[in-house]
Amino acid sequence: ETGVTQTPRHLVMGMTNKKSLKCEQHLGHNAMYWYKQSAKKPLELMFVYNFKEQTENNSVPSRFSPECPNSSHLFLHLHTLQPEDSALYLCASSQDPLAGGLETQYFGPGTRLLVL
Amino acid sequence: GENVEQHPSTLSVQEGDSAVIKCTYSDSASNYFPWYKQELGKGPQLIIDIRSNVGEKKDQRIAVTLNKTAKHFSLHITETQPEDSAVYFCAASTNSAGGTSYGKLTFGQGTILTVHP
């Protein structure tokens, strides 16, 4: 778990706030992911970055804006969220599967987000 | 796209008993099937995985079986211990250059396993 870190661990924000979630991986991976985990629902893939390029946007609303400045860091910028966006946001990383690497994804501890 | 169904949603066993969690998937091109364990306040941690060229894989008290014809795979935990209590997720992924879901995991809904001392 210490290979992927996320900050903050907990966040409470109002619907008009702007905040950012940060993820950092220390595993030398080239792919990074954002997932949303809501109660009683499967993990939902939001975004995938491969070598800093976004390769997947799983129909995520524009109030979620990802940023990947390098292969080790991933951000999720949040603005004008809704209460239903309250969830655990998980970051993961893996070796680049396009280069025949492993598909195993390593997860961070998540950020517990509450939107009031 | 891929769809993964996981059962049961909750499972309660006595310490020392075995626990079995089953998953089915829809995309016959899926060829990688990991299992994750998520403890309270933590992210999912990989506990075992299997690829489509293998029917069974064991790691101490944990085993996974795969039936590609029936498109289902199962997690078996033997001699369960209270520290096995957690939420378990199965997932399926396609890792082929020609596919559109390259390296993309689709997760099941999760199973809450409780092991009573």
Number of strands of chain B: 11
Which class do the helix and strand fractions of chain B yield? mainly beta
What is the C-alpha radius of gyration of chain B, as a whole number of Å? 14 Å
Rounded average pLDDT of chain A: 89
- Report, as a whole number of angstroms, the end-to-end distance of chain A: 29 Å
Attribute tags:
heterodimer; A: about 120 residues; seven-stranded mixed sheet; four-stranded antiparallel sheet; about 0% helix; B: about 120 residues; mainly beta; six-stranded mixed sheet; five-stranded antiparallel sheet; 11 strands
Can you give a write-up of this model?
The complex is a heterodimer of chains A (116) and B (117). Chain A has no helices and 11 strands. Chain A is mainly beta and 116 residues long. With 117 residues, chain B is mainly β. Helix content of chain B is 0%, strand content 56%. In chain B, strands 2, 4, 5, 9, 10 and 11 form a 6-stranded mixed beta sheet that branches. Chain B has a 5-stranded antiparallel beta sheet with strand order 1-3-8-7-6, with no helix packed on it. In chain B, a hairpin with a 2-residue loop joins strand 6 (56-59) and strand 7 (62-67). Chains A and B meet through strand 9 and strand 10 of A and strand 4, strand 5 and strand 10 of B.
What's the short story on this structure?
The complex is a heterodimer of chains A (116) and B (117). Chain A is mostly beta strands and 116 residues long. Chain A has strands at residues 4-7, 10-13, 18-25, 31-37, 44-50, 53-57, 64-70, 73-79, 87-94, 106-107, 111-115.
